[in-house]
Amino acid sequence: RPLATVLVLDRRCSLEGPAQGTHCGDRGRNIANFDEVIGVVRATFATADGFAHCTFRAEDHSVQSQAEHFAAADLVIAVVGAGLANMLFMRPGATVVMLHPSSPGSSFSVYSSRCGQSYFWHIAAQLGLEFWALLCPQL
């Protein structure tokens, strides 16, 4: 088993595949520099140091596959969205880092966009997960 497994939810809006037509970028939840983010994750949690990482588009997988990926993860990094409901399958003590849009034009969850509050924080607390929300003005 690796020292730790890092799961990064792929939240790139594209014109192809399941995200087509969802306007996820219009809601401020598109990681435009996803490849750069993955590069930083791989450099920070290097395979040579015993870490494993996986990028993951939840909507491309069955519920069972989603559950298995989240159950295996020690760290999940994701933009706020329905895919984080899979936290239910994580082990107590695992960590979730949620990227939250905070730009004035963001139309996703006005209340939580302004103060960083999230129902995911409440879920994580009940499950014994470490939870970090990062407000991202350029998300």
Description:
By secondary structure, the protein is α/β, with parallel strands linked by helices. The chain is built from four helices and five strands; from the N terminus they run βαβαββααβ. A five-stranded parallel β-sheet has the order 2-1-3-4-5, with helices on both faces. It is globular. Mean pLDDT is 81; it is low at 19-23.
Number of strands: 5
Strand order of the largest sheet: 2-1-3-4-5
Q: Runs with pLDDT <50, length 5+?
A: 19-23
**What coarse outline follows from CA principal-axis ratios?**
globular
- β content, as a range? 15-25%
| Protein structure class | alpha/beta
Q: How many helices does DSSP assign?
A: 4
Succession of helices and strands: EHEHEEHHE
Calculate the terminal CA-CA distance, rounded to whole Å. Answer: 33 Å
Task: Specify Rg, calculated over alpha carbons.
Answer: 15 Å
Helical coverage, percent range:
25-40%
Mean pLDDT: 81
The largest β sheet comes out as: 5 strands, parallel
What attributes does this structure have?
alpha/beta; 5 strands; globular
Quick structural overview:
This protein is of the alpha/beta class and 139 residues long. The protein has helices at residues 34-44, 63-72, 110-115, 119-127, and strands at residues 4-9, 51-56, 75-79, 95-101, 130-136.
Compile the SSE list and pairings:
Layout: E1 4-9, H1 34-44, E2 51-56, H2 63-72, E3 75-79, E4 95-101, H3 110-115, H4 119-127, E5 130-136
Parallel strand pairs: 1-2, 1-3, 3-4, 4-5
